[in-house]
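Quick one, T. Sequence first:
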Amino acid sequence: MAIDLFVSYDYDNDKHYKNLLLAWDANDMFDFEFYDHSVDVSVNSEDATYIKSVIRRKISDCTHFLCLIGEETHESGWVEWEIETAVALGKKIVAVKIDNSYSSPDAIYGVGASWAKSFTFSSIMTAVYAA
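Structure tokens:
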């Protein structure tokens, strides 16, 4: 079963983990495609309306929304907005804690998220297919 997956993450601190997902996907270990939410305009630019419209469209096109939760993710207003957008669009929510001790964004609670408590292939796959 192929899964279209949007990955939300703290770009400044957790890009390595998103890239690891890309590497796993390239090796056919995952049976899904996922969207890289990077856009050509800086998130901190004055064109937040444009950025949100691009991200909203990408979230809308996916079946699952996966949030990578790193050490600083709970402080990201953009990740919070992406979670809220995914919930409003009725997406299946998957939360992946890079380390189980990291605080989660408030928006991920109470939305029926499927949780991976560690960043391992088996934990992530179990959470994605349980969502």
